[in-house]
Write a structure and sequence with these properties.
Chain lengths: 378, 328
């Protein structure tokens, strides 16, 4: 009994002495939480690191938990780590990346390669896997500066709101840090990232940036991005306007939705890849004008055929852009072909990265249209 | 993935062979069997080798895990503090006794199982067989010949050599080893599948512990996010249990070698040696060499070749002795 009491007392003393120490404790008041991080090219082989910090207000003053003001700090530095160190020295609080919603690279930097930066950030435990990666058509600083100029006051969640548009427009794609990191480190598929166009005083996510290894090689348009999402089965929903099969110069608006069951086949004939894609797509008519009566089944079939034709053309355009123009397998056809080989050594012999640009594509779209019940027959 | 299935099957055959070979030696562990085969000399040699082995594997596991914990959560705290918490846990567990360690393991294992399965479910949407292709890896030689070295990951086999005397009923040895081996292999399989689903095969950069990065991806709908802290807590308790069992094994072997009555007496000494070992400031190159080369070849050499040979020879000696005594 005495032995037990002594053991318990010793344990308590150890815990009291060691666990109550808080000399290295960190509270939220000790940090500057970065909302977004921008990386630009600077003079003399340096980079310009910009950080956006939401200004915090005391809880009694603030109506919501979101700040409506922000501040951007920029510093020229040799690396991201040294830039953060300089800013840590300049600011009176330590910079913390755990709430960073977006990492923005300027197109100039992306075209030179981003692997070095991504690997440094990948080592940072504060960066969330869900943090988004954006490529700015102008300077990354401009994206930070103009993000809140869309008629809406600044919020630390603004980036999340802007990026969520991919769910209902399909005009850009989901490019999280982890996905990007994985893709630039594999040979089986190439990376893509959100492409942000900077206008006079606003920014707009428009299409996607295409990478070959870690180097940006070009961009695709928003409609081509829809094609990418359809092929990779990542489309949640989007709106497209197809030419009306009933009247010239008229359009039919369709709402497309993700549909499982797509089939892709990659064959290699005489060192040339032949890729066939079968895509079942669900759609609904949003508006048809006065051109046709959507309650007649034959008319729906005509719309389906028109949609098939339109989408097949769109998807082929995208596929030939990534193959012929950029030679970047962003869909991952290489991985599909690799499954037909027993070993990596055998697969490497065909030099997929070199022959992908010679690919031929066959696309078959099977659209199934239903009435959306959003409008009534006039 | 094929390599994992391949070594899993070889490991299972190995475990079944162990079951057969241990039939002749109920209530004996590998130290007793060494004594039977080569007398006190072999017993002492094997005992010392196993003590060094358990110290080394515990050292590699703890330093790796403690460094990860420090990097992620206790950036400012010295490593010695992180190590101290583990040491306190090991001392308390070994003072309280093996039964308590076993009960803690029984409590933790189901949660750990759930955590691994949750990790698998978290990456379910991204799962594609293409990510594991070509299925035979780089080439047949690396998968089947060089890949045989990956059998070290089935390190659980080590404990089977010491399990028999710890069981109430030695007849259940066969059942326990087979079931525990299958569970262990399944956990390894699920973990590897989950990690390979999000990190490509050709990815040769490992910025952090892959399992930790995987845990950061786990989300339960939109309601529960950033569950990594919970998973780290579970793995922390699992490491506590693992280290406690390893130190307990060192005590048991030491007791057999020295004939001391109560192994608890040396708990503080062994833990102090272990603590001191963990404080040796090896650089990352030496640590990686120990993890990737020394650890791997030690397990294969000692557990899968050395001990198995001793067991095999002991069986032959037993048969020979039995044959000669019946002949008399």
């Amino acid at each position: 009994m005495i032995k037990k009491c002594i053991s318990l007392a010793c344990l308590l003393v150890i815990l009291l002495v060691t666990l109550t120490g808080c000399y290295d404790s960190n509270g939220i008041e000790n940090f500057y939480y970065i909302v977004a991080l921008g990386i630009d090219k600077a003079e003399d082989n340096l980079i310009a690191l910009s950080i956006q910090i939401a200004k915090t207000t005391s809880s009694s003053d603030a109506a919501t938990s979101q700040s409506s003001e922000y501040k951007i700090y920029t510093v020229d530095c040799e690396s991201i780590e040294s830039g953060i160190n300089i800013l840590n020295n300049y600011l009176n609080k330590k910079i913390n990346l755990s709430h960073c919603s977006a990492i923005i690279f300027s197109e100039e930097i992306a075209r030179e390669g981003v692997k070095g930066y991504i690997n440094i950030l990948g080592n940072d435990t504060e960066i969330r896997p869900s943090c988004n990666l954006l490529i700015s058509s102008a300077k990354a600083y401009d994206v930070l500066d103009k993000v809140s100029n869309s008629g809406e006051s600044f919020s630390s969640r603004l980036y999340e709101y802007i990026l969520q548009s991919v769910d209902y427009t399909g005009y850009t794609l989901d490019s999280t840090f982890t996905n990007f990191f994985s893709k630039i480190n594999t040979d089986q598929t190439q990376a893509t990232a959100i492409y942000t166009v900077v206008n006079d005083d606003t920014i707009q996510n428009s299409g996607a940036a295409i990478f070959k290894d870690d180097i940006m090689v070009g961009t695709i348009s928003p409609l081509q991005t829809i094609s990418h999402l359809l092929i990779t089965n990542e489309l949640k929903s989007c709106m497209i306007s197809i030419p009306s099969p009933f009247q010239e110069n008229e359009l039919v608006d369709l709402n497309l939705k993700k549909c499982t069951g797509s089939k892709m086949e990659v064959d290699l004939i005489n060192q040339t890849p032949y890729i066939s894609i079968d895509l079942p797509i669900k759609g609904s008519i949003n508006s048809s004008g006065e051109a046709f009566d959507y309650t007649i089944p034959e008319n729906i079939t005509l719309v389906e055929e028109a949609a098939n034709k339109y989408l097949e053309r769109l998807i082929k355009e995208y596929l030939y852009t990534i193959s012929k123009q950029y030679n970047s397998d962003t869909v991952g056809f290489g991985g599909m072909l690799a499954s037909k080989f027993l070993t990596t050594d055998e697969f490497n012999k065909i030099e997929w990265n070199k022959i992908f640009k010679d690919s031929f594509f066959t696309v078959k779209v099977d659209t199934h249209i239903t009435s959306s019940h959003l409008f009534n027959k006039e | 993935m094929i390599n994992l299935i391949y070594i899993g099957v070889i490991g299972l055959i190995f475990v079944l062979c162990l079951n057969y070979l241990f039939q002749k030696f109920p209530n004996s562990d590998i130290i007793d069997i060494s004594e039977f085969l080569g007398g006190k000399f072999l017993k002492i040699i094997m005992g010392i080798i196993f003590i060094i082995f358990f110290f080394l594997v515990s050292y590699i596991t703890l330093t790796d895990f403690a460094n990860m914990i420090k990097t992620i959560y206790f950036d400012k705290s010295p490593l010695i503090f992180v190590l101290l918490y583990f040491m306190v846990g090991i001392i308390v567990a070994n003072f309280v006794g093996f039964k308590s360690i076993v009960r803690t393991i029984c409590f933790v294992v189901p949660f750990t199982l759930v955590s691994i399965i949750l990790a698998l479910l978290a990456v379910y949407n991204e799962f594609s067989l293409d990510k594991f292709s070509p299925f035979f890896g780089h080439n047949m030689q690396t998968t089947f010949l060089n890949g045989l070295l990956n059998i070290f990951s089935l390190y659980i086999v080590t404990y089977y050599y010491f399990l028999m005397p710890l069981l109430k009923d030695s007849f259940s040895f066969k059942k326990i080893t087979t079931i525990s081996y299958i569970i262990s292999w399944l956990l390894l399989f699920f973990t590897v599948v989950s990690i390979l689903t999000i990190f490509p095969i050709t990815n040769d950069t490992e910025p952090l512990n892959s399992l930790y990065l995987l845990s950061r991806r786990i989300e339960l709908g939109d309601f529960l996010k950033s569950l990594d802290a919970l998973f780290i807590l579970l793995w922390l308790i699992s490491i506590f249990c693992y280290l406690s069992v390893s130190i307990f094994m060192i005590h048991r072997i030491f007791r057999k070698l020295t004939n001391i009555t109560d192994e608890k007496m040396i708990t503080l000494s062994t833990t102090s040696i272990f603590f001191g070992l963990c404080l040796i400031p090896f650089n990352i190159a030496i640590s990686r060499f120990m993890e990737n080369t020394v650890y791997r070849y030690l397990i294969i050499g000692l557990i899968f070749i050395g001990c198995f040979t001793i067991l095999l020879l002991a069986n032959l000696k037993f048969k020979f002795k039995k044959g000669s005594s019946s002949h008399k």
